[in-house]
Specification:
The chain contains 24 helices and 50 strands. It has about 1100 residues and is of the alpha/beta class. The protein folds into 5 domains: about 250 residues, 3-Layer(aba) Sandwich (Rossmann fold), CATH 3.40.50; about 120 residues, no CATH class; about 150 residues, no CATH class; about 45 residues, no CATH class; about 350 residues, Autotransporter beta-domain (Lipocalin, Beta Barrel). The strands form 7 sheets. Strands 11, 14, 16, 17, 19, 21, 23, 25, 27, 28, 30 and 31 form a 12-stranded mixed sheet that branches. A 12-stranded antiparallel β-barrel has the order 34-35-36-37-38-39-40-44-45-48-49-50. An 8-stranded parallel sheet has the order 12-15-18-20-22-24-26-29, with no helix packed on it. The longest helix has 29 residues. InterPro entries: Autotransporte_beta, Autotransporte_beta_dom_sf, Autotrns_rpt, Peptidase_S8/S53_dom, Peptidase_S8/S53_dom_sf, Peptidase_S8_His-AS, Peptidase_S8_Ser-AS, Peptidase_S8_subtilisin-like. It comes from Sphingomonas zeae.
Amino acid sequence: MANGQRTADYNAALASWRQDKQFTVDYTKGYLGLEYAYVLGLSGKGQTIGINDAGVVMSHPLFAGSGKISGLRTPIPSTYGNDGMVNPRRPWEIHGTHVAGTAAGNRMADGVMFGNAFGANILSATTNFSAGDFLWWRDQILDDVMVATAQENIPALANTGRVRIINNSWGSTATQPYTLTPSQARAAFQQTLDGFYDPVLKNDVLVVFSAGNGSGVHASIDAVTPLNDLRLRSNWLSVTNYLANGTAAASTSLCGQTATWCVSGPGSSVVSSAATYTIDGAAIRAKYTRAMYPGIYAATTLAQLQNAAVNAWLGVLNDYLNRREAAKASGRFFDEDAERTKVAQQAVGISLAYGARFVTPDPDGYTSRLAQILTIPGNVALVGRDFASSVLTQANAIITAELQRYITFTGPGYASLTGTSMAAPNISGFAALLMEYFPEYNTGLISDILVSSSKDLDTPGVDLRSGWGAPQMAVALRGPTALRDTREVTVASGTIDIWSNSITDARDRYSAEVLAGFPNDIGGLVKRGGGELILTAANSYSGPTRVEQGQLTVDGSLTRSAVTAVAGGIVAGNGTVATLTAGTGGIVSPGSTGAIGTLNVAGTATLASGSQLVADIGPSGTSDQLSARNIVLGGGTLTLRPVNRVPRYGDSYTILTASNGITGSFANATAFSAILYPELSYAAGRVTAAVGARPYASVVAATPVQTAYARLLDANRSAYANLRGTYDLLDLQDVGTIRGALEAIAPRAETTRRAIGTTATDNIARFYRDRLTAMTPDGFAGGTVAMIGKPLEFAANAIAAPGRPQTVSDTPTSMVRENMLPDNVLAYLAGGYVDGSGAAMPGTVGGRDPFDGFYIAGGVEARVSDTAALGFGLSYSDIDGDQRFGQSAKGELIQGTLYGRLGGTLGPALDAQFGAGVYQSSTRRQGNFVGTPFDLRARDNALTLSSEVGASYMKGSGAVRFGPRVAIRTSSIDFTPTGETGTGPALMYGRDRFLSVQGRAGLQVDATEGGFRPFAAAYFVHDFEGQPGYFNAGFAGGTRAQARFLTARQDSDWGEISAGIAYRSGRATVSLAADSTVGRDDVRNQSYRAGLKLAF
């Protein structure tokens, strides 16, 4: 809003500016539509405008603030204005101050007006024009001392590197008609520049010139300068003065042959800053009377007034010459000094009388014209150089003293002035706003945007009177409407510029008279910078469009321009272009960024070798498309870019269509991932891309887990619809992610499940082996019930032993209740703690897989004869594996065992056991699969069989027994096909059988002495069954294909040792025992037992 408040109501914001008192102080800002810039927050901030004029009163409040205004030092005498300030002999000078305020004066809360680019800074340069200054003519003309630097200030300002715009509200008024032909204009305004203005081009500065106040004649020579160096056209503006109603001000010069760089600005009754003063015109007229200057007072028009002043001055000079000649002829003394003073007084009188005739007296009077007449070379030859110099010196002193009497300075204020001098800074401020809005654009493009935004004022098109017309900010902010040349368009990375105007060749807008001089003004674009330029309208410029950097999005049309993308450039959009070529490194990307669309080519689209077509894709069948009459493929690259949806295996897209056919092919298609890639199909008028899949075997590492999964993934691609949850996650990953993801879902728990089964069956076999060893004729306690260990506690609590060695069976010795059964029958109830670890799945990290649990066994034993005993027991084992890497396994073994022994305490003996049961196992795998949580469970009921036949021979006495024992043991677990359930990449485990056939050979020793019973045993075990070390699994819901996953290999040879001691006192027996495997890796086990037996 104009009051500084923020609003989301765009129209309300516009209205607030249009109603602002400072905005409406005159018609200038409304004429140019500057409210459209101000609502966007534009103020010219960051821009510096050079004001090359008569100097600025820098103390004016419109120029307050650090850095707001500064001056340029020029090489002139110290008695003149410098550093951008006014000539000290002419303190009433307001022209430069007014111009500076119009272009960039501050916006103040209590101000009367503000400059068009009120946020811009000013660099002022003093021109030191001749107006009002008698000494200027003496120094500059007679003494040839440089005191005026108007033209020289332009390259000097440009060379500072600080300014983007240089405003020049001055110039020599031409007399030629504005209808001059190009050749006539070049002849009339010929200048030899010799690169004088090269700094303007080097520093890319916009030079703005007022056309002049010649009342309908051709623009002035300085405005016409580019006719002498056509390189300057893009950096030069000529400005006429038009009224609010769109007609030319009476005083303005017209564009003429500057038309292609000429606009018509507002320059009538313009209010701006000034050093205000009053001048006592009545007092001047009272002293310099009608009687003294009758012709001056009799004049009723400006022309008459000027003629009267000139005639009066010529009369003074002729009278001087006549008196001098008469004195010389008569020989009389001629007082030269007095005569010169008299002439000087007359010069002052004529000038002041002239100035006093205006409604607002002009202190400059006619000083400049009178001094000019005096310094004309022919006149100097008549009156003498010394005379002319003396008269000008004295006239300066006299008029300075006189004006001090008549002028009263009232401080900084505001004044209303008219002329092209006022129109030019309005346009300079306009340009500064555009440069702020388009900070990367060069001056040629800015000037094209400025001039082509104009509203026609006279005849349609660009004409010799008003040029392009009146610039309009609302149009300019939408980009150019015409281009005079091929323009570089730089858009900074990360930014977007939108041009919504229809753009034509400039020459298409020229009137016949203008076109005759500039028939080749056709437009083109070179897109640079990493940002995006969007063209939304129908564009008909015919020059080339070349995209060298960043992106050009054509959402409208380019009906006559040949579009080319080279290395670093992207052509995109939903519109239509005439022809399209993508060179090496160039990219064509139909549609808008992040949205699906079609780019149409009316003619031929050529994608050369090294080019790239980038097409956004959505759901299958939905994609960007390049559609042309003809398409030529030279071996570039196709890249499909997913938008708001990841590509899926089997998706298909039509990427290219051509009504007259497609020739050639792409050399490459960029893969989506390590697996998915576009498979291209070429037909006569189209190219389609289907999403294909490479084998996983080609990307995985040669590890057991990755190799197995790769086989499954490759063999199940035909079941993609059932396994999308797995494929859609994994297909899009890179090699490293795929490898890591597959290792993370290795079925480790399956190896643990098997180790638990082995431990459970081995532990129960050991339990009954121990029972068989104790079934000697002299040790049989018939009629009793034995409590071995604490079976009820283990069943209820599954207590873990402190320190938890790897396989522990806690089976304390018996607690006995006597006379509960027949003398030849014994019943028992036993329990213990099991702890162990199995070898981890081969190829995985993290060490061994620990587990622990408990078991309960109960049964009855009977002494059949003095040398024979039989038993039958039921057992339950529950072992849980630790959770490692998100995976765990559990096992429950329920088994019945029949066992017996034949033999005495000493001598030979045979023993046997046979068990059958069910191993109920379960696994759980949890984790994160490519960013998605998974939770998979499996449960199996497997038949278990176990048998052992042994033979022993014990020697010794009642105190010490020892002897060998040999045995054959077999055990098996028949795993059934088991599928995982839950979320994630579920496996179906195939049917498998664990089989062990062991040969066991060892030595047993025990002794009895005074209640103490030490015992020990050692075995060598050889397993005759060589297990393959793997299990088969496939994907649940997939094909019947399976892959081998490795498990820990079953050891072939190992040792087992055990030792313990028992002590019996009365009815109580305490025992301690330990056993351990030696040299076994697949399932290491150790057992520690402590027991108490009580007899009743």
